[in-house]
Amino acid sequence: MRPLRTGQRKHHGVSLGFLALSLTTACCLQSQGVSLYIPQSTINATVKEDILLSVEYSCHGVPTIEWKYTSNWGVQKIVEWKPGAQANISQSHKDRVGTFDNGSIQLFSVGVRDSGYYVVTVTEHLGSSQFGTIVLHVSEILYEDLHFVAVFLALLAAVAAVLISLMWVCNKCAYKFQRKRRHKLKENTAEEIELQDVEC
């Protein structure tokens, strides 16, 4: 292999220096950016359940984390905090939200009204930010509906039993009435026959 000439060495050295500078700049920029990961972007829940809106982030320094709730009624801020500091929770969600240093929040005893889009924004102190969305669907508890159906069916069964009992009693009464009537008819017929015999 031939040794490089002086001009080629300088050019090669400049290229390596430029490459090293580019890699260093890219690493610095990457270390200052925010990355956000959402393990579950859609959550299905039932009424009265406690729900974890889970996220994970990485960034340079201590970020500011903010959660907002979007529904048919508009956008509403839920909570804002810095990990390690006290969270600033909105009045609408007081005593209903718990925060975690990894950016996640927990909603306690959710209702159907809590269905909607939850947007988390992670902003680092240098100004770069990243956001993500979790969709929450909250439905009525199924066993409550089944309980109502079971009670309704039990009521129908009770009414049917009462009606069947009344029909049985009415049938017995009608049968006794017909027996008495037949017996009376037989007695009347026997009396008529006796009278006819006497007259003859």
The strand count comes to 11
Provide the structure class: alpha+beta
Q: Give the CA-based shape.
A: rod-shaped
- CATH class annotation of the largest domain: Mainly Beta
Please tally the helical runs, counting DSSP H or I stretches of 4 or more residues.
2
Mind describing the biggest β-sheet? 6 strands, mixed
> CATH fold name of the largest domain, please?
Immunoglobulin-like
Strand content: 25-35%
Write out the CATH superfamily name of the largest domain. Answer: Immunoglobulins
Helix content estimate: 40-55%
Span of the ends, CA to CA: 160 Å
Short summary:
By secondary structure, this protein is an alpha+beta fold.
Overview of the molecule:
This protein is α+β, with helices and mostly antiparallel strands. It folds into 3 domains: 1-32; 34-140, Immunoglobulins (Immunoglobulin-like, Sandwich); 141-200. The protein is built from 2 helices and 11 strands. The protein has helices at residues 6-32, 142-199; strands at residues 35-37, 42-46, 51-53, 56-58, 64-71, 74-81, 88-89, 97-99, 105-107, 116-123, 129-139. It has a 6-stranded mixed β-sheet, with no helix packed on it. The longest helix has 58 residues, at 142-199. It is rod-shaped and about 130 Å long. Residues 7-14 and 16-31 have low confidence and may be disordered.
